Amino acid sequence: MRGTVDNDLVERAKRKDKEAFTALVHRFGDRLYAVAYRILRDSARAEDAVQQTFLIAWRELPSLRDPDRLEAWLFTLLVNACRSEIRSVGRWQRGLRVVTDNDQHVDDIQRTFAQRDELERAFRQLPLEQRAVIVLHHYMGLSGDEIGRILDLPAGTVRSRLHYARQQMRATIEADSRPVAGEGTA
User: Fold this and answer.
1) Is CATH 1.10.1740.10 correct for 1-90?
2) CATH topology for 103-186?
């Protein structure tokens, strides 16, 4: 993936060295949170997913055979934790955004918020598997091969999920922008 992990640090953490594991948490925590937040779109749930990821990592780390695969393994655990978060809530809740009208650029701001909201609604319609691929590719900048290693998928499946996710998001945005029958008639 992106950087190399100090194999000695990983080996010490595998032997339940708390200081070594804490160093790994500090090294990967922010990136894991950023990905979880982008998948879940909720800071508290993203924090829960990251915490769950590290709890499982602490318990299962001794079974990790290749220290160089630590980052990919953590992202795999994270995607699974995000899946659990989604199942536990059952459905998505949207946050309320407040736009004040005391700014001279209110129209531009409202247009920007409307565009973000369109993307947000379209993203939320995607299944978790497609969300994860979108986030890992567009936010983390990972290649299809790297994403495939993280999610234990063939690169072709990753490309397919990216394609169908983009297609579904485009269709959702287009459907949302169509006028509703009877709307605008008096």
Assistant:
1) yes
2) Arc Repressor Mutant, subunit A (1.10.10)
pLDDT, tens digit, 9 for 90 and up, residues 103-126: 444 455 556 666 777 888 888 889
Cα–Cα distance measured from residue 173 to residue 54, given in angstroms and rounded to the nearest whole number: 36
- Measure the CA–CA gap between 69 and 77, rounded to whole angstroms: 12
Tokens of 7: 């194999």
Report in angstroms the alpha-carbon separations of 174 from 24, 132, 178: 43, 23, 7
> Where exactly are the structural domains of the chain?
1-90, 103-186
CA dist 72 and 115 (Å) reads: 32
- For the entire predicted model, the pTM comes to 0.67
Q: String of b and e for 84-121 (b: at least 16 CB within 10 Å)?
A: ebbeeeeeeeeeeeeeeeeeeeeeeeeeeeeeeebebe
In single-letter form, the type of residue at position 142 comes to L
Q: Within the chain, which residues score under 70 in pLDDT?
A: 1-4, 89-114, 180-186
User: What is the CB neighbour count within 10 angstroms for residue 34?
Assistant: 15
